[in-house]
């Protein structure tokens, strides 16, 4: 039995955390962790030795904001490829450009639209098979006469 993917939701607003967690628990087979600050996010990453598949990270938080948190994550070579989806109430162009430079996987506007959140999360933790892989599978089946 394979282990469930792990998603860490980081938002200073407990209501946003509760909503995201509720939506994800209903529709996505994953272990959901939550925290309310960027520094706690970094501590969880360290304690779990990076064993997190996706981080949903609020941009606007007191203390260490989402951009600062992501910058700290990217500075650690062990987490350089960590998948991060930004959560934002105001998706202004400047913030999205800064986030893109830090290699975000995607962003979701708040308040959440459940179907949008689920689709963006599933895209990151359950990526579709690439076309070449599909072609290779069909070719192998043809060679086997199936």
Automatic annotation (TrEMBL):
Domain Response regulatory, first and last residues per copy: 6-125
One GO term of the biological process aspect: phosphorelay signal transduction system
4-aspartylphosphate PTM positions: 58
Keyword Phosphoprotein: yes
Protein name (Swiss-Prot/TrEMBL): Response regulator
Chain segments annotated as coiled-coil in the UniProt record: none
Keywords annotated in UniProt: Phosphoprotein
InterPro entries: Bact_response_regulator (IPR050595), CheY-like_superfamily (IPR011006), Sig_transdc_resp-reg_receiver (IPR001789)
